TrEMBL record:
Organism domain of life: Bacteria
Catalysed reactions, semicolon-separated: RNA(n) + a ribonucleoside 5'-triphosphate = RNA(n+1) + diphosphate
UniProt cross-references to SUPFAM superfamilies, sorted A to Z: beta and beta-prime subunits of DNA dependent RNA-polymerase
Segments passing through the bilayer: none
Source species taxonomy: Bacteria, Katanobacteria
Keyword Cell cycle: no
Cellular component, GO, one term: DNA-directed RNA polymerase complex
Family label: Belongs to the RNA polymerase beta' chain family.
Protein name: DNA-directed RNA polymerase subunit
InterPro entries found in the cross-reference section: DNA-dir_RpoC_beta_prime, RNA_pol_N, RNA_pol_Rpb1_1, RNA_pol_Rpb1_clamp_domain
Protein keywords: Coiled coil, DNA-directed RNA polymerase, Nucleotidyltransferase, Transcription, Transferase
SMART domains associated with the record: RPOLA_N
Organism: candidate division WWE3 bacterium GW2011_GWC1_41_7
GO molecular function: DNA binding; DNA-directed RNA polymerase activity
GO biological process: DNA-templated transcription
Length: 413
């Protein structure tokens, strides 16, 4: 009770980004199953969202299996079911966690206005969003010395393709030219001369067609060359662009996709050096550029002063709040009313378990990427549905499910 009285007397609340290790220190166990209760026995499912072993007993001083009952066994952990014998109010305090099969980004930091993640990395919010949702690649490493080699390789491939087209053209016209040579010898045969003229016209048409083909190829390769030249560190390329340029990009870059790639970039940021550089740039900048630099500097300083590692915006552990804060209530007629959070957690666990299975099976990359995107979307829906993309909003019937952020809003939050 003393602890609860201390909690009543406070002046302010500070919200900060917790590290994965800190989230694990809050947890009493990992939730691996999406089930809540068994609808025959009305008891909490093991390793589920209401598991008594993780969150504490449902009945005061009584373990799950009933072996230990009464306050005299307080603090005893049942050797049969693993539940600690204690007061049921701990189910309002004890947290669990979900270990994610793939890192995800915190929706507040890449979809907020302004986007903190985009400002730190100096990338447009739309670009960072497309990387996190697996529709674009980002260049995470670049070797400037090998870039010229890749550009010259494009030139070589252009010449090679031209030679192939010329060879195709020559093979197609060779027989016609021989036929023209034969017909030209028949100087007195008007039919032969007319046939030779038709063949010459056909050859001319073929030359024009192949000329256009070579011009088209040159335009294509020149476009590829310009795109390769424009690639810099943290350049964002669409899926199709990356696949078209992959042969050349692999020579001098490394690209990534999803929250994992963003985490790698955030890990390379030196906030002290970045703050110094931004101040120097701000002294000489004017207009819109100065405004953008000031915004970036403000975000960098906030992270520095709070001693927060930017990598914390990407995480692979999701905390599960106590079950009594997301209750499951039995109604008349044997039906149950459940908190929206249970449905959001259930979707997250289902997708996470499916992704783990696909990774274990060595599923094709395109399937794994799609499942990782769905995992990201389910975490977004759990944390803040208002920041979610419109087309992926999670609903129950026509009603949108209330996320953790929605629960914190208003006077009741």
């Amino acid at each position: 009770m003393k602890y609860l009285n201390e909690l009543k007397n406070f002046d302010a609340i500070r919200i900060y980004l917790a590290a994965p290790e800190e989230m694990l220190s809050w947890s009493f166990g990992e939730v691996t199953k999406p089930e809540t209760i068994n609808y025959r026995t009305f008891k909490a499912e093991k390793d589920g969202l209401f598991d008594e072993k993780i969150f504490g007993p449902v009945k005061n001083y009584e373990c799950y299996c009933g072996k230990y009952k009464g306050i005299r066994y307080k603090g005893v952990i049942c050797d049969k079911c693993g539940v600690e014998v204690t007061h049921s109010r701990v189910r309002r305090e004890r947290m669990g966690h979900i270990n994610l099969a793939s890192p995800v980004a915190h929706v507040w930091f890449f979809r907020g206005i302004p986007s903190k993640m985009a400002l730190l990395m100096d990338i447009s919010p739309r670009s960072i969003e497309s990387v996190i949702y697996f529709s674009s690649f980002i260049i995470t490493q670049i070797d400037g010395t090998k870039k010229a080699q890749a550009i010259s390789e494009v030139e070589k491939d252009l010449e090679k393709s031209k030679r192939i087209v010329e060879k195709e053209r020559d093979n197609e016209t060779k027989d016609m030219e021989k036929e023209i040579e034969k017909l030209s010898k028949k100087t007195n045969d008007l039919v032969a001369q007319e046939e030779a003229l038709k063949l010459k016209q056909k050859i001319q048409t073929l030359y024009t067609t192949y000329e256009r083909k070579m011009e088209e190829q040159e335009r294509t390769y020149r476009l590829i060359q310009r795109k390769v030249e424009s690639v810099e560190l943290y350049s964002v390329l669409s899926d199709n662009e990356y696949l078209n340029l992959a042969n050349y990009l692999d020579m001098f870059t490394r690209a990534g996709i999803g929250a994992e790639a963003v985490e790698g970039i955030l890990g390379t940021l030196d906030l002290n050096a970045l703050a110094t550089q931004l101040r120097e740039d701000l002294e000489v900048a004017k207009g819109q550029k100065a405004s953008k630099l000031a915004k970036r500097l403000k975000v960098v300083e906030q992270f520095r002063k709070a001693s927060i590692d930017p990598q914390r915006m990407i995480f692979d552990v999701v905390p599960v709040i106590p079950p009594d804060l997301r209750p499951l209530v039995q109604l008349e007629g044997g039906r149950f009313a459940s908190s929206d959070l249970n449905e959001l957690y259930r979707r997250l666990i289902n997708r996470n378990n499916r992704l783990k299975r696909l990774l274990d099976l060595g599923a094709p990359e395109i399937i794994v990427r799609n499942e990782k995107r769905m995992l990201q979307e389910s975490v977004d829906a759990l944390f803040d549905s208002s920041k979610q993309r419109q087309r992926t909003r999670v609903t129950r019937g026509k009603k949108e499910l209330r996320s953790l952020a929605d629960m914190l809003k208003g006077k009741q939050g």
